[in-house]
Predict the structure of Ribonuclease PH.
Amino acid sequence: MTVARPSGRAPGQLREVRIQRGYTQHAEGSVLVSFGDTRVLCTASVENRVPAFLRGKGEGWVTAEYGMLPRATHTRSDREAARGKQGGRTLEIQRLIGRSLRACIDRKALGERTITLDCDVLQADGGTRTAAITGAYVALVDAVQWLIKRGEIKRDPIFGAIAAVSVGIYRGVPVVDLDYAEDSDCDTDMNVVMNDGGGFIELQGTAEGHAFRREELAAMTALAEAGIAELVSKQREALAG
Amino acid sequence: MTVARPSGRAPGQLREVRIQRGYTQHAEGSVLVSFGDTRVLCTASVENRVPAFLRGKGEGWVTAEYGMLPRATHTRSDREAARGKQGGRTLEIQRLIGRSLRACIDRKALGERTITLDCDVLQADGGTRTAAITGAYVALVDAVQWLIKRGEIKRDPIFGAIAAVSVGIYRGVPVVDLDYAEDSDCDTDMNVVMNDGGGFIELQGTAEGHAFRREELAAMTALAEAGIAELVSKQREALAG
Amino acid sequence: MTVARPSGRAPGQLREVRIQRGYTQHAEGSVLVSFGDTRVLCTASVENRVPAFLRGKGEGWVTAEYGMLPRATHTRSDREAARGKQGGRTLEIQRLIGRSLRACIDRKALGERTITLDCDVLQADGGTRTAAITGAYVALVDAVQWLIKRGEIKRDPIFGAIAAVSVGIYRGVPVVDLDYAEDSDCDTDMNVVMNDGGGFIELQGTAEGHAFRREELAAMTALAEAGIAELVSKQREALAG
Amino acid sequence: MTVARPSGRAPGQLREVRIQRGYTQHAEGSVLVSFGDTRVLCTASVENRVPAFLRGKGEGWVTAEYGMLPRATHTRSDREAARGKQGGRTLEIQRLIGRSLRACIDRKALGERTITLDCDVLQADGGTRTAAITGAYVALVDAVQWLIKRGEIKRDPIFGAIAAVSVGIYRGVPVVDLDYAEDSDCDTDMNVVMNDGGGFIELQGTAEGHAFRREELAAMTALAEAGIAELVSKQREALAG
Amino acid sequence: MTVARPSGRAPGQLREVRIQRGYTQHAEGSVLVSFGDTRVLCTASVENRVPAFLRGKGEGWVTAEYGMLPRATHTRSDREAARGKQGGRTLEIQRLIGRSLRACIDRKALGERTITLDCDVLQADGGTRTAAITGAYVALVDAVQWLIKRGEIKRDPIFGAIAAVSVGIYRGVPVVDLDYAEDSDCDTDMNVVMNDGGGFIELQGTAEGHAFRREELAAMTALAEAGIAELVSKQREALAG
Amino acid sequence: MTVARPSGRAPGQLREVRIQRGYTQHAEGSVLVSFGDTRVLCTASVENRVPAFLRGKGEGWVTAEYGMLPRATHTRSDREAARGKQGGRTLEIQRLIGRSLRACIDRKALGERTITLDCDVLQADGGTRTAAITGAYVALVDAVQWLIKRGEIKRDPIFGAIAAVSVGIYRGVPVVDLDYAEDSDCDTDMNVVMNDGGGFIELQGTAEGHAFRREELAAMTALAEAGIAELVSKQREALAG
């Protein structure tokens, strides 16, 4: 079964992925991640405090905030700061990023610190949340290494890697890493977060058109597994660089 | 493999489900749904207007709002109206309910009307969003029937039924319809929305402890399919009653 | 002087009043109160903290919050949590409920605790604030008894009972406990809160049409006294049950 | 029965009342009203539009907003504009002022216009809401006269006068027009709004200490009647001036 | 070069300036300042606490808040408290007032106290921010004297005086202290804050029409210097009074 | 007079300035501007609507919004969208950018369109508002050229160029284009906006330490003139590129 993806990619082919560390200079970790034309700046900030519900428990916290520059998209969207609140989509995405990254860190070993991952979309072309998770992982590692180098923590609290990709059914064919053209015209859209051991961390699938079947779910998760394995390699390369 | 569920239920056993129509008198549809001790009041309100982005297109809209009474839970939570905003969890849930129910309605056939599903949790014991979706479907049908009886719409815009259930891995065992005791102590928690044709509408899984594997995903979706089939029967009984 | 009340009731006749304790299971006090078709869920929540202005003074606090489910009314009203603020009417009512109930409790004897009375209207047919006060009193007693049973407080801080009813001039005739049909078509509407000793706690009268005269005031307060005596009996029965 | 009022006034004696018209120059009506040391600036602004619920009905609207300068009081209170919302007390008062003044105007005769009464407390010493109502009435008359002089409306839409005063039980004695010293130490506090025909428009009584009895209510309303008659004379003098 | 200023004033002539101390009674400093028809009530409130960023540093803080009564202007503007936020213009002005007055006070000598300057415009005719700064300085001195008289601080923390005036290019001619008629029709508008030593504290110039030239800047600052010297004399007179 | 600037620059020397057009692809104008380590993304978005106050007048509007990514700075600052409002500094800066750019455009010639300049700081090292103005001008030109190329407007509405730079007194010496190290340790900080004809558009000077004198003002404005001339050349080069 073949279908022409708008980009000409094969069904299981990711867009060009770039992970640029040290993109800005102040943050303890700062990564510009690109999935094709989607570009997200992910910074990791270390602070020596934890939210109220964790005070005095000897544990740290990892959290995320997500934003989209007003003209990251085809038409300008309102600035959330000017409107006075973050929309439901924004809150949903930043909760997803935070939960995903907490799945690879031993919060006891982190100690009473908070690492905040700010994921700001400079340019959007589909898959901003999966790019954000994939880039934020690298920023998180850099921030943790910064703590280790300064002797603030003894052992590395990070176990395993976390990456994410979208999969979907586009004109009847399961495909990976949807761009905007596919995303706005597909039947099913699923975001998958996995670790480098092949375990699922988050799975969020939505039938946009027809309901999807068990076999389609299996095909999509298989594509996601392969794509995420590739993304984890890219993360390793970037961290080795 | 056996495990004692706190409630003594079998892994594939739902809690007692009750669907009480006409619970309040003003709404076009009004359903009190109970999944065990979880009780959600779902009302469907018909209004002759649509959101700005749909004006003049001859299509209707179905949307949802979700709320939790402050003392629906073990300890009192802040009233969102008093805090001045809805939290991320609330927005996420009401977006899910709205998307799920839009998957069973022909919005052209509905005409330029909005049906709002208000899902308010009177008492919470796990699974409030799945109970809300299951109950809101019945309220939606009642509201549509009200429109048909008044001659405002000609043909039934609803195709198929929508129901939802949670599944998870509790102490290593896949189980269906988690109550609070299980929910707060499980490794994986997944909310599944399906139609009566066995197609998936939404799938949202989160690894709370260990990442979950492909086989666990399959076991959970199988449990969800069976549970949702049972819920759809309950909906039919209620609507026939 | 006779007038046909829409409900067929006599001028001094209350609607059917029901007070159902233990309506939900988590709150220390939980009461569903009905004045005819008006149904309000009143929960009392005990917390071991007091507002900042009372810290360290050895006194407790009793406060109230009020909400109306969006479709408790004939037409759907906006959800206050979604609008981002509580309206003036809501704030006015919750301040009234809080003040009323603080009039029957010795806050020193309560100790440094807060009891919050959440009054949520499930269905509205006039008189929601008076039903809320009448039901919240019972929930408050239950919460205080819970504290006494656990040995957390020694002596009962509650002195006397508090109940409330509306009175008004409907088509020239003073009547008690107005339902929505009367409320929206009356000349004067007054909410009266009294204790079981026949003393006035709050009196809030508004001339909707003609200004009311001294004699009308006297007739209305007399009706209120009788109605509240009856409500206090209902509270006693419920608490004895 | 005698008691020393802190101010040395007799129980039925008002504070010195001054009503200064034309206090500021831009508003169609602008009145500085003083009840002793309580000083409130009341402006009436005419606008050729009505709220959405009145559009096209050929009726006007009268509404009020109330504010307290941060240092009108003994200790500085937060600026509501800076806090981002008006408090419950503010909303309650401005709703009261608006309702009170709508009781003396024929909104059909006003035509599709809104008159907004802004009541801003420059200095507070008890009774700010009653002073505001009494002063706002004069500002309203001035604004209506401005409309009549410009030929925008034909017949005077105002029938009767509206004034307000507080009464209370101070150390067992019914007194009128409480200042701050009395207000913060009294058993009962009641705000009474009446028209010049001796009819009650609003009555809001609160037992701060003991519940008040029927006889006390009668004594307080009698004091209010006399006080309001005096205030209406002051309004007439000011308007004749 | 001559031009008829709408008010008939000479280019370098200020409007009539009045500085009335003790305008209200509760604040530690309370000044009604008038620049012609512009009237601003400036109160200074002393509180024994400092913002979080200064705690424990042995320094005080001086800050300002600015407000405009809704009908201080020709047409009614929305009440910021009702809109739920202070506008950009308000925030800009109150930041300017605060910075200006911090330039004349030794915050170490003030000790851990905050003085808040509330500047509320009762009537606006151009130049409200410069009147506010000029009046707030006098209120600040009064508040500091109050602290000194009570023995709470030993040495006067105020060094020098601060005053402000607007200058502009009106129909080609540099003029001082623009009223509303000039302000809304001028090419350049500049607000200048200086101390009594002739030093500039703040300079904020905006070309409304043509860009202004170096020579015009010089002419405007010269006018400002003369005007501010006159204002400082008025402040001295008022403080001596 | 010599002083070591932390960067080693001469007093009149700008940092390295880069202006990169087409940085993102969706906006009608998109410029990444760098003043040394300060990097601001400026996008210009064209929309076919104008604010309410301009509707039907045949004029366009140019406005700006400003934001700072949370970790653009040395320590993370709160995300304004999450806090629910834009701070005073943000509002002040975006008002400044908007006013500045409106000074170079004929709004009649633009027609009923709005061009919004979003200036988002990716990395901050002092001078973000002056970099933003300088970059936004280039984005504005690109957006206008886009309109011209599409034939939507006939004649170029832009007259002249606008650029901005900061000047200050650092350790007694007037310097241009302060970086963060200078900015946080200088006596006077002034932001100057000029056009390419050498006229002043905006001048905002603040004495952080000592009040500044007339001669210092002259020295600073002279430095600004030279710096801005250089920036205008850079803009021309970029636009020619």
